[in-house]
Design goal:
The chain is 57% helix and 18% strand. It is an alpha+beta fold and 77 residues long. The protein has one domain. It has a two-stranded antiparallel sheet. Strand 1 and strand 2 form a beta hairpin. It is elongated, with a radius of gyration of 25 Å. The N and C termini lie far apart (62 Å). InterPro entries: SMIM1 (IPR031744). Keywords: Membrane, Transmembrane, Transmembrane helix. This is Small integral membrane protein 1.
Length: 77
Amino acid sequence: MQPQESSVHYSRWDDGSRDEVSMTAASSIEETSWRRICRKLCTGKLGIAMKVLGGVALFWAIFILGYVTGYYVHKCK
């Protein structure tokens, strides 16, 4: 495991009423790969297709759950 490098930069403005703190961390390989995959799957035409397919899958999952629940709730004895 490699140690992550990070740096903290603190600068105070002249008037003293505003302080600025900025932190930067060296990105690891996993983070870069994750961001690349997320960017590819969540943007553009592929992102739209993934969102549509996710919405359709969610619709059918809720529909089937409601159907099964309604069947057992309203089942004749």
